[in-house]
Design brief:
Number of helices: 10
CATH architecture of the largest domain: Orthogonal Bundle
Number of domains: 2
Radius of gyration: 24 Å
Largest sheet: 2 strands, antiparallel
Strand order of the largest sheet: 1-2
Structural class: alpha+beta
Shape: globular
CATH superfamily of the largest domain: Winged helix-like DNA-binding domain superfamily/Winged helix DNA-binding domain
């Protein structure tokens, strides 16, 4: 009787550790005297799929694979995210553009770098960071719109940011010349330790208004992406050796699974 009470207490404690909204599945038995491990909770199944996925996936695709509703999958994702953060786990769920992926926590960046022997002797220059910030806050954005804010030709820096995988071409603006539209990538999110773009620190009102006005003016002018406007920053390299990096957001990159 005492043993039964103790077992019941342990079972209740284990259940309390589960993410909210998860319910245990039935225990499958393979025959008399043979027991199989219990079925995974939905959050565990979602976590497994994210672990083996080689690219960000939509909750809809996860729901289809699991034969569950998208709402249930969204709830499982939220439960996992809360579990990771509340228990100090080394993983996070990163979301961008309606797609999610499993990444390591920003706080684990240094340990991951040491383990993988990553070479981080180069840092983004100030002009490159400024260009990247314009793309992040105003995306999708054209080169002409970026240059309207910065006042210099940014073709070299944009090429470097494309090469580093921090920005990507996301389409073309339907105007004269159909200039390329740029947006940030998942690599950008990982580099700055962001779970979603909503974590970007808010711009001061005056800076936000200036950014909006300059990019809208460039769009209305119909300027295409041909030809430089002024001398490009630092020869267009966009890099500097082991220089300082901005404090917000963090620049140490978590590594995706």
């Amino acid at each position: 009787m005492v043993h039964q009470a103790a077992d019941a207490s342990k079972s209740e404690e284990a259940t309390n550790l589960l993410p909210e909204g998860d319910a245990p599945g039935p225990v499958s038995t393979g025959g008399e005297g043979t027991s199989q491990p219990p079925e995974l909770f939905l959050s565990g199944l979602v976590e497994s799929l994210l672990f083996v996925a080689d690219e960000p996936v939509t909750p809809g695709k996860l729901a289809q694979a699991l034969e569950r509703s998208e709402a249930e999958v969204q709830e499982a994702l939220a439960s996992l995210q809360a579990l990771y953060q509340e228990t100090g786990r080394g993983l996070r769920i990163q979301e961008r553009g309606g797609r999610v992926q499993l990444v390591t926590a920003p706080a684990a960046a240094q340990a991951v770098e040491n383990f993988l022997n990553l070479d981080l002797t180069t840092r983004l220059s100030g002009p490159a960071l400024e260009t990247l910030a314009i793309v992040a806050y105003r995306q999708p954005v054209t080169r002409a719109q970026i240059e309207a804010v910065r006042g210099v030709d940014c073709s070299g820096i944009l090429r470097k940011l494309l090469h580093l995988g921090l920005i990507e071409e996301v389409g073309r603006l339907e105007t004269v010349g159909r200039p390329i539209l740029y947006g940030v990538t998942d690599q950008f999110m990982q580099h700055f330790g962001l779970i979603s773009l909503e974590e970007l620190p808010p711009l001061p009102a005056q800076e936000a208004d200036t950014l909006l006005a300059a990019t809208e003016l460039a769009e209305e002018a119909g300027v295409d992406d041909a030809g430089p406007r002024a001398e490009d920053d630092a020869g267009g390299s966009g890099l500097e050796d082991a220089g300082p990096t901005p404090e917000d957001p963090a620049t140490e990159p978590p590594v995706s699974q």
